[in-house]
Design goal:
The complex is a heterodimer of chains A (112) and B (115). Chain A has 112 residues and is mostly beta strands. Chain A is built from no helices and 11 strands. Chain B is mostly beta strands. Chain B has no helices and 11 strands. Chain B is globular. The chains are: A mainly beta (112), B mainly beta (115). At the A-B interface, strand 4, strand 5, strand 9 and strand 10 of A face strand 4, strand 5 and strand 10 of B.
Chain lengths: 112, 115
């Protein structure tokens, strides 16, 4: 049973389009992290959100943590081919938790 | 700081053989984690060390799996009598603990294929 469900599972868009990836759970998390993973590589951390309602921006990427700390979203503006990859959300159930619960992943392909 | 290093990157073995993977964490990190990732899925937690002590093990870690971190630095994950279902990417991560929010930094993984 996955604690975190991501949608969509697959997304293929044209360069320049905007997209949003969702990460949902019925459980509360103390923090939530977003990673991007390239084929054959480990996940690379993009951002950590810790406060309900928090919004963080990294260039064209906007991350939001839900008010109830049960969900999160990742919005990419003007997608580029370099954004192609597997996007994973991961949550820590409490501060200093020893393991992360990962979502099911969203595989994004940006077509030039 | 060279990040988390895992060796080998790829391992192909026959069913029934034993395999061992190594993880070298970021040098000042006292916490080390092992995860397993199957194709099309997110990583799943296997086990966690704080220094040399193995403090938590997932139910996914069957008795054929054993992990060690003898001096609180590098760690090894051994799988005995491998089965085809063990084929996966094995990821190692390390962190400073709660002092930096518990952010985990991942290695590139070891991809295991059991024939």
């Amino acid at each position: 049973t996955q604690l975190l469900e991501q949608s969509p599972q697959f997304l293929s868009i044209q360069e320049g389009e905007n997209l949003t990836v969702y990460c949902n759970s019925s459980s509360v998390f103390s923090s939530l992290q977003w990673y991007r993973q390239e084929p054959g590589e480990g996940p690379v951390l993009l951002v950590t959100v810790v406060t309900g309602g928090e919004v963080k921006k990294l260039k064209r990427l906007t991350f939001q943590f839900g008010d109830a700390r049960k969900d999160s979203s990742l919005h990419i503006t003007a997608a580029q081919p370099g954004d192609t990859g597997l996007y994973l959300c991961a949550g820590a159930r409490w501060t200093g938790a020893n393991n992360l619960f990962f979502g099911t992943g969203t595989r994004l392909t940006v077509i030039p | 700081d060279t990040g988390v290093s895992q060796n080998p990157r790829h391992k192909i073995t026959k069913r029934g053989q034993n395999v061992t993977f190594r993880c070298d964490p970021i040098s000042e990190h006292n916490r080390l984690y092992w995860y397993r990732q199957t194709l099309g899925q997110g990583p799943e937690f296997l086990t966690y060390f704080q220094n040399e002590a193995q403090l938590e093990k997932s139910r996914l870690l069957s008795d054929r799996f054993s992990a060690e971190r003898p001096k609180g630095s590098f760690s090894t994950l051994e799988i005995q009598r491998t089965e085809q279902g063990d084929s996966a990417m094995y990821l190692c991560a390390s962190s400073l603990g709660s002092s930096d929010g518990g952010i985990q930094y991942f290695g590139a993984g070891t991809r295991l294929s059991v024939l």
